[in-house]
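On clarity, I found the account of how folds are encoded harder to follow than it need be. An entry of this sort, consisting of the sequence and the corresponding backbone structure tokens, reads as follows:
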Amino acid sequence: MAAPVAVPESTGTDAGRWPDVARPPRTSWLRTAIAERILRHSLGGLPLRVRLGGVETLGLGGPLLEVRDPDAFFRRIGAGGLIGFGESYMAGEWEARDLVGVLTVLADRAASLVPAPLQKLRSAWALKQPSTQRNTPEGSRDNISHHYDLSNELFALFLDETLSYSSALFRGFPADLSLLAAAQHRKIDRLLDEARVGPGTHLLEIGTGWGELALRAAARGARVLTVTLSQEQRELARTRIRAAGYEDRVTVELRDYRRVQGTFDAIVSVEMIEAVGAEFWPEYFMTLDRLLAPGGRVALQAITMPHDRMLASKDTFTWIQKYIFPGGLLPSTEAIESVTAEHTALRVAGRDGFGPHYAETLRLWRERFTEQAPQVAALGFDETFRRLWTFYLAYSEAGFRSGYLDVQQMLLTKEETSR
């Protein structure tokens, strides 16, 4: 067995809070050497400038990726793949002035960065999703709390006044921060229109957020039950609903979607399916089917990824799952259509993709998050956390700018069935 590579001293990161970032991992020289060889070959053919240790430069020209500590960079990627790539950024071992530009180039070539013969070894190389992140009713509470119960004050620092944490829908580009709230309302209103929400509609919302969609639905005269697993979101949503005078029309419950009972004229859910997990997609859509009244409509907003990439990555453990959304997985449109057809009477009656709008939404959030760095620090979030979130927002934006990711609004209707 190869001897492990020596681990250098800590970078100054809080090892108690960020154990896997504070020190590069122990791994064999062979894995590190293989990772370095693959990366040198791949990066050398990309429209990037990759500077290694301030001396060597790879790439065909383009945004600059400055690798300050090549040894740690290659070691992390050899041990953890893309998780190591993200942790290396969190540790400050590489930097990019145009972070989105660098990540967009990489996202655009995500399927080909690793040579095809080596991709067949992915199952042996990649880390597996931990069983502790399964989206059982108990696991889902923990997974949601990890992200959404961080701090309402944190989210308020970079979101607009609607506190909408999903893609907006703009009239044109480039988007402007002053127009973000209106663009969020445009997105919400189109979903409510698709679901035909109006006076007297009995509406179920799965995934409350901070209550903006429920408020818009109540203003139309609907009766709303909205459910969430985030204690922090529930409390603030209730406060906002009370302040708007809609307590008689909106009920906010801390409840798993599988535990909802009743019959609803319409169901709306915005970017919540990403937290369900492939294992539970059938149960999720069967629940929608059970709760929807005959003739009812479901309006979903979902982030999607290409079907082949979803199949290739659905069982692996990713940086996003480790640090941002435990248990999360983006579906493909094919997966949604297949699961609904096999397990329910629901059918996708229409869908519209608007990925570029999410790229602009994320840009506005990222720029505002950067501007608010002192306020983020004042809330008790350290520099590693701020690098983590900067990378997350830039990484997501790059996914949409490259076309690797899309966001869809989908209309589902229920077929007549004799079941």
Observations:
- The chain has two domains: 19-127, 133-414.
- Residues 19-127 form one domain.
- DSSP finds 19 helices and eleven strands in the chain.
- Residues 1-10 have pLDDT under 50 and may be disordered.
